[in-house]
Amino acid sequence: MEFDVARWRGPVLPLSPEELADHHAVGQLCKIYALGMDLRNYDLARSAFADEAKIQGKAGLEPVDESLPATYAVASSFKATQHVIANQYVALDGNEATVWSYGVAHHKVAKGEERDEIIAGVQYRDTCRRYPDGWLIVERAIANQWVDMQPRVSKI
After folding, report:
1. Which has more pLDDT, 105 or 112?
2. What is the pLDDT of residue 92?
3. Are 75 and 37 in contact, with CB atoms under 8 Å apart?
4. What is the value of pTM for the model shown?
5. Which of 22, 91, 117, 156 has the fewest CB atoms within 10 Å, counting from its CB?
6. How many C-beta neighbours within 10 Å does residue 89 have?
7. Lowest-confidence region among 59-73, 84-98, 142-156
8. Distance CA 47, CA 45 (A)
């Protein structure tokens, strides 16, 4: 997934009402995915992706219905997760959009484990497409920014 980040250089012009609506819509997709993962609702997380979507994995681009269940199983193995989606950068190109979303994902482990939590900084790099029913993710790459796996500090 190649993308020229120079598209996000300033100065920035105001968006039309239609562009603003599209920016909002594509920005929601990553948040829908995160909410589904945190609520342990696979169908909600999956609803952000087109049926033909691909996710970049260790073996290359994998169909969403092969990649996402494995990711969901890992997330579900934690006591709780919380994905905080922060900065989002959107580039619209007609019926296609590129959305980069920065996130911090907290993964709480069970009492008695070696550490309290695993915290990871991630960047979701999504290619989205407009369909008759709305926008969906058609390709995703995840750029891991950092990870913190400190030993347990609380006694709870």
Report:
1. 105
2. 96
3. yes
4. 0.91
5. 156
6. 16
7. 142-156
8. 6
Closest C-alpha among 107, 101, 111 to residue 141: 101
Which phi and psi angles does 119 have, rounded to 5°?
Answer: -115, 130
Of 107, 91, 99, the C-alpha closest to 138 is 99
Asked if residues 104 and 81 have their Cβ atoms less than 8 Å apart, the reply is no
Q: What is the dihedral sign for C-alpha 77, 61, 92, 95?
A: negative
End-to-end Cα, the chain, rounded Å: 43
CA distances from 28 to 64, 133, 135 (A): 18, 15, 9
Q: How far apart are CA 45 and CA 68, in angstroms?
A: 9
- How many angstroms separate the CA atoms of 116 and 79, rounded? 10
CA–CA gap between residue 146 and residue 120 (Å, rounded) = 6
pLDDT tens, 70-111?
999 999 999 999 999 999 999 999 999 999 999 999 999 876
As given in the structure block, the two tokens for residue 90 are 């959107």
Name the token pair of 36.
């589904």
Joined together, the tokens standing for residue 84 give 């905080």
